[in-house]
């Protein structure tokens, strides 16, 4: 991250979000950010889970965020669309992806709210989590050290969370079936593939 220059994260926040965001954000682009983008893109392309379940159509150039002691990003919902500059068009943000780039800090959990329940996530360096962009979420206050993450947004071939869940369930069902039961394997695969064709949007 040697050539990364940082700015106040409020510069990219809109409206009341400026009041709940305390962090720094990398100024784009730079060679370090380009390298992170290439690694991220390459990993997404070769990750069979992401290809089969997330079904990415567009993946946005990542944002790089830094949180030092006392900083946070309180509860918010990500924007529904973001500009894809090279294509000159907007991309629908169906899914958000946070990639953890360092260890050794305290606090800073990513908390995702789903109705009355919530999930606190703090992963190892190099791990990532993907979650619906329409979910309320926050980054808890850092109590020690510094947290650095890359964040990107994905437009899926299937915009509906429930439909993507059905495709995922059918994939899991197919994996659990006996490999000798070719007829049932083919039936589950046929249902999954045909539903994907029915629900896909480009």
Radius of gyration: 19 Å
Mean pLDDT, as a whole number? Answer: 93
Helix content: 25-40%
Going by helix content, strand content and strand pairing, the class is alpha+beta
Number of helices: 4
Largest sheet: 7 strands, antiparallel
Low-confidence parts lasting 5 or more residues at pLDDT below 50? none
Share of β-strand residues = 35-45%
How far the N terminus sits from the C terminus, by CA atoms, comes to: 35 Å
How many strand units? 16
Write a structural description:
The chain is of the alpha+beta class. It has helices at 31-46, 48-54, 161-176, 182-199, and strands spanning 6-8, 21-22, 24-26, 56-59, 63-68, 72-76, 81-84, 89-92, 95-100, 106-107, 110-114, 117-121, 128-132, 137-139, 142-144, 146-156. Strands 1, 3, 4, 5, 9, 13 and 16 form a seven-stranded antiparallel sheet that branches. Strands 2-6-14-11-12 form a five-stranded antiparallel sheet, with no helix packed on it. It has a two-stranded antiparallel sheet with strand order 7-8. A hairpin with a 4-residue loop joins strand 7 and strand 8 (89-92). It is globular, with a radius of gyration of 19 Å.
């Amino acid at each position: 991250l040697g050539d990364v220059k940082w700015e106040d994260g409020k510069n990219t926040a809109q409206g009341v979000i400026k009041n709940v965001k305390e962090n720094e954000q990398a100024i784009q682009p730079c060679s370090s950010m380009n390298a992170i983008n290439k690694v991220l893109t390459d990993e997404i392309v070769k990750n069979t889970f992401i290809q089969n379940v997330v079904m990415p159509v567009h993946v946005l150039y990542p944002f790089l965020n830094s949180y030092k002691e006392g900083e946070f990003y309180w509860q918010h919902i990500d924007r529904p669309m973001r500009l894809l500059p090279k294509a000159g068009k907007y991309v629908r943000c169906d899914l958000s992806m946070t990639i953890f780039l360092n260890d050794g800090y305290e606090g800073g959990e990513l908390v995702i709210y789903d109705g009355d329940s919530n999930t606190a996530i703090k992963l190892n360096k190099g791990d990532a989590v993907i979650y619906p962009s329409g979910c309320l979420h926050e980054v808890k206050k850092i109590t020690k050290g510094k947290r650095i993450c890359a964040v990107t947004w994905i437009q899926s071939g299937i915009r509906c969370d429930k439909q993507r869940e059905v495709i995922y369930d059918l994939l899991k069902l197919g994996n659990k079936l006996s490999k000798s039961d070719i007829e049932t394997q083919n039936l589950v695969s046929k249902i999954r593939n045909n539903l994907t064709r029915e629900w896909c949007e480009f």
